[in-house]
Design a protein that fits this description.
Elements (H helix, E strand, L loop, with lengths): L15 H17 L11 H6 L7 H4 L1 H10 L1 H30 L4 E5 L6 H4 L7 E6 L1 H13 L7 E6 L6 H7 L9 E4 L8 H13 L6 E5 L7 H18 L7 H4 L9 H6 L3 E7 H7 L17 E7 L1
Parallel strand pairs: 1-2, 1-4, 2-3, 4-5
Antiparallel strand pairs: 5-7, 6-7
The structure holds S-adenosylmethionine.
Length: 312
């Protein structure tokens, strides 16, 4: 169940689930601008700049970062941690695509691509096609903003503007997708915005479109944080936003489906013709020295897994 969602809701980049794409892009922009960045996403800042106002501004403006730290050091730690998590996540899935390219795959699909700029910023061999699927207004915003900045894709990019709860396989095929060749799929920052049965349905559709040798990478939905802890943190975010004059945005957790019966991604894939490897994102954060500054009180069990799999 999600407090704010319906089965056919829509959004643009500034509202509801659309705004979550701005939040994660702001983290990538902040990481890119930092002293020792783990990733480089030179387009994240441009994409965030045109997407309205929100609590993510406190990630990007150094004077706001300092104000938050003075008002509530623990919330400053939450912001910092968010940036580190997104950096590690981006780093992990960038490597997934580099591996897929090395394995000879030339057909990529990014599900719920949001403000992901991999089509524009990664090195792709010639002959590679990348399909991006997201809601129409989200994709239109990204294309228009990057085109206005003179940024062009680094490969054949095809936008498939459709909701993933509709018949997206038909739209993907209509855009030229070939199910007979191996594909590399990515579901990053998506599964938590689908109900449990929607997640199963999505993986069934992907499996049906995946030739042997296809690969998939996914960020699991993560576990439910305690309501009490969520409310406490949200109240403190609200207080800070009001004090330093940031626009209020919805609590991301209210947009997610916290379904306790959600299938574990790796186990589901293993049971449906894939060979999966799962690892806790916290392990990857530690490996990359990005865990040390986790704010006290965070529930480590709530963190997502990063799952990759190869189709038998
Ligand atoms: N994958 C991108 C990234 O990591 O930067 C965006 C992640 S953002 C947190 C969530 C994205 O999922 C948004 O762009 C939103 O529009 C998209 N999304 C969520 N549910 C969707 C659905 N049912 N159909 C299409 N897109 C969806």
């Amino acid at each position: 169940m999600s407090a704010l969602r319906t089965h056919d809701d829509t959004w643009d980049i500034a509202t509801s689930v659309g705004a979550t794409a701005v939040m994660v892009a702001a983290s990538r922009a902040a990481e890119t601008a930092s002293a020792d960045p783990l990733i480089s996403d030179p387009y994240a800042k441009i994409l965030v700049a045109g997407a309205g106002t929100g609590v993510w501004e406190a990630l990007l403006d150094e004077s706001l970062v300092e104000k938050v730290a003075a008002l509530d050091p623990e919330i400053a730690g939450v912001y910092h941690h968010m940036r580190s998590y997104q950096a590690v996540r981006t780093h992990f899935f960038d490597a997934f695509f580099a591996d897929a390219v090395r394995a000879g795959i030339r057909q990529m699909v990014i599900l719920a691509s949001g403000l992901d700029s991999r089509a524009y910023r990664l090195d792709w061999p010639s002959g590679t096609t990348l399909y991006e699927i997201d809601q129409p207004k989200v994709l239109a915003y990204k294309e228009q903003t990057l085109a206005a900045a003179g940024v062009t894709p680094a490969l054949e990019r095809r936008a498939v503007a459709i909701d993933l709860r509709q018949d997206w396989p038909a739209a993907l095929r209509a855009a030229g997708f070939d199910p007979a060749v191996p594909t590399a799929w990515l579901a990053e920052g998506l599964l938590m915005y689908l109900p449990a049965e929607g997640q199963d349905g999505l993986f069934e559709q992907i499996t049906a479109l995946s030739a042997p040798g296809s690969r998939i990478a996914a960020e699991s939905a993560g576990n439910h944080r305690s309501d009490e802890r969520r409310q406490q943190v949200q109240e403190r975010f609200k207080k800070i936003a009001a004090t330093i004059g940031l626009a209020q945005t919805v609590d991301l957790q209210d947009l997610m489906y916290h379904d306790d019966d959600r299938a574990p991604v790796g186990a589901w894939l293993d049971g449906h013709g894939w060979q999966a490897t799962s690892q806790r994102s916290t392990t990857e954060m530690r490996r990359l020295n990005r865990w040390a500054d986790v704010p006290t009180g965070s529930d480590e069990d709530a963190f997502s897994e990063f799952v990759t799999a190869v189709r038998n």
